TrEMBL record:
SUPFAM superfamilies on file: EGF/Laminin, Growth factor receptor domain
Domain of life: Eukaryota
UniProt record, GO biological process: cell adhesion; cell differentiation
Name of the gene encoding the protein in the UniProt record: Egfl6_0
Keyword terms of this UniProt record: Calcium, Cell adhesion, Developmental protein, Differentiation, Disulfide bond, EGF-like domain, Extracellular matrix, Repeat, Secreted, Signal
Full protein name: EGFL6 protein
Localization per Swiss-Prot or TrEMBL: Secreted, Extracellular space, Extracellular matrix
Alphabetical list of SMART domains matching this protein: EGF, EGF_CA
Molecular function via GO: calcium ion binding
Membership in a protein family: Belongs to the nephronectin family.
Record-annotated EGF-like domain positions: 32-71, 112-150, 157-195
PANTHER family: EPIDERMAL GROWTH FACTOR-LIKE PROTEIN 6, PA14 DOMAIN-CONTAINING PROTEIN
Xref: PROSITE patterns: ASX_HYDROXYL (PS00010), EGF_2 (PS01186), EGF_3 (PS50026), EGF_CA (PS01187)
Keyword Signal: yes
Species this chain originates from: Urocynchramus pylzowi
Length: 197
């Protein structure tokens, strides 16, 4: 799969076909998707579009709940939670809208859990983990690209010698390896393969 124009916020899935990451759109995934304009509307009261995502807000006297709805709650409003709260037996507790977020030390704001460094995220073979706010996604390792074969997508080795993306010397041979390549000076020349004399 080669995408001549590239896929800015997405992955190349076929000849000039991009699969955009959530929150992005367009032929080359270079445009931000305005989630606030979607039907059904993602927020009950007010919605603000952000780069690659969106934020919900509630009218005065209402509190944002983790599911995006707005609930009237005097006690909750007094606690001033970032995303919403619940009242259990008269106790008010702030909530976070995703499993990839946890309550910060102040008990009101939500902080991101880096699933990539905690080991919670498991990416399949030849994929690397990329952390996002509240979640993560898996991307092909460097030297691999997403290919569709036998009814599924896999990260396949990029043959740099064929795609001509190697940096071997004019007097060197390119040898493809899994996820990379090697350069070897031709007979009668010596050097690193990137420099041959």
């Amino acid at each position: 799969a080669t995408c001549g124009h590239g896929c800015k916020y997405g992955e190349c899935m076929g000849p000039n076909k991009c699969k955009c990451f959530p929150g992005f759109t367009g032929k080359t995934c270079n445009q931000d998707l305005n989630e606030c304009g979607l039907k059904p509307r993602p927020c009950e009261h007010r919605c603000m579009n952000t780069h690659g995502s969106y934020k919900c807000y509630c009218l005065n006297g209402y509190m944002l709940m983790p599911d995006g709805t707005c609930a009237s709650s005097r006690t909750c409003a007094m606690v001033n939670c970032q995303y919403g709260c619940e009242e259990v037996k008269g106790q008010v507790q702030c909530l976070c809208p995703s499993g990839g977020l946890q309550l910060g030390p102040n008990g009101r704001t939500c902080i991101d859990i880096d699933e990539c460094s905690t080991g919670k995220a498991v990416c399949s073979h030849n994929r690397r983990c990329v952390n996002t706010f509240g979640s993560f996604y898996c991307k092909c390792q460097l030297g691999y690209e997403l290919k569709y074969s036998s009814g599924r997508y896999n990260c396949a080795d990029v043959n740099e010698c064929v795609t001509n993306t190697h940096r071997c010397n004019l007097h060197a041979e390119c040898l493809n390896t899994q996820g990379s390549f090697q350069c070897k000076c031709k007979q009668g020349y010596q050097g690193s393969g990137f420099d041959c004399a």
